[in-house]
Amino acid sequence: MSLDSLHYRTARCLNVIPRGENYEITHELNGRKFVLPRLAYQLLTHLKEPTTIEELLDRTSTSFPSKEVQTMLNRLRKGGVIVATGDDETYHRRLPNKTLMGIPAYHDSAPEDLQNRRLVLLGVPFGSGNKLDGACAKFPAKIRWFTQSYLSSLHARNHQLDFRGFGADNSFFTSLREWLASNRLTDGGDLVLQPNEYPSSVYAKVERLTEEINGKGNVPIMLGGDHSLTFPAIAGVARQHEAIQIIQFDAHTDTYVNRVAELYAGSGKAPHHHGNFLSNALKSTKIAKVWQFGIRGPFTMTPPKDARCKIVYAHEIPDFLQSNSVQQLDPDLPTYLTFDIDFFDPTVAPGTATPVIDGPGYRTGLDLLATVLDRVNVVGADLMEVNPDRDRDDQTIQVAVSTLLRLINGIKM
Ligand SMILES: [Mn+2]
């Protein structure tokens, strides 16, 4: 569609308050606030009905130079204040007042080269992929609140920080410090979702989110949310690559099927949920390899029957680490790493909806994560299934923060 044929109009979710000569405009969905001159207000008035840019320039030509109008139009469209034909008016990220750990906010733009790529933390507060307990939707807000108490200025203080409290020597955290110091660890805010929004709409937004960020050469790191979100997140990232590898830390294989589910699959009406994201991902021929770590428990009696999948059961992890089996992982394939917090033993991370006994301890789990990250090329990642309602004394949140810091530290600059 050429620019000329686009019709523009004012967005529907705005609050406009006159402030002296200017107007204060707040977008209800993305939270962005602008103080704008009379020109902007006039454009909003003209654009109550869909209008082409030609018509708009014509109508404003006696009061404003066309260049000024076009610049303002671009600015307003970027902020979602006006929309164009084909724009999805419901798709927004909302930045909190204070970013996670004080890191810079992410604004859409491509890095000049891949050496300048950014890591982008993204909250997706959606838990309805688990019909029994969807409180993992509260995790993005919870980790934002929790890190406010003692990690709020991690970014600014990165040079003086002593990370030994996170279970390793300071030299281990060099990469994390570099990400912080380079301003390339960023907060992309939370995806805006409505209560009871259709899951299919949420998944479409997640796919768009990771596709946009990865398509600009940056690395999305989603903070879920339930594990059903990993399927669209992988789909978005996979669009940018010929082939990708999935690395999954999880107690479950997430290839859950039963006879009833198969019946629905046969009719093309298979439900997507937090226990089958991998079955759906595997339908894509772009998925070249899947490594699953930490699998255990009575729910895993039917491991995926797919030659691309390799399972390292929980009890095999110590041997995997000792025998340097990590060499078997492909270092070149673009990798999506998904981390379900129920990977850890429930004594370590009780705050999750589907805990499974006999999982890896805190240190073993984090050692495995560091070892794997050291080997692979991460282009997207997530941390899922942290359920604050089931937590004990913020124990799981602490584990989640540690896991996130290790994840960032393990992604090569
Ligand atoms: Mn799981």
From TrEMBL:
Source superkingdom: Bacteria
Matches recorded under InterPro entries: Ureohydrolase, Ureohydrolase_dom_sf, Ureohydrolase_Mn_BS
One of the protein's GO biological processes: putrescine biosynthetic process from arginine, via agmatine
Coiled coil listed as a keyword: no
A Pfam family assignment: Arginase
Keyword NADP: no
Name used for this protein in its record: Agmatinase
UniProt lineage: Bacteria, Pseudomonadati, Bacteroidota, Saprospiria, Saprospirales
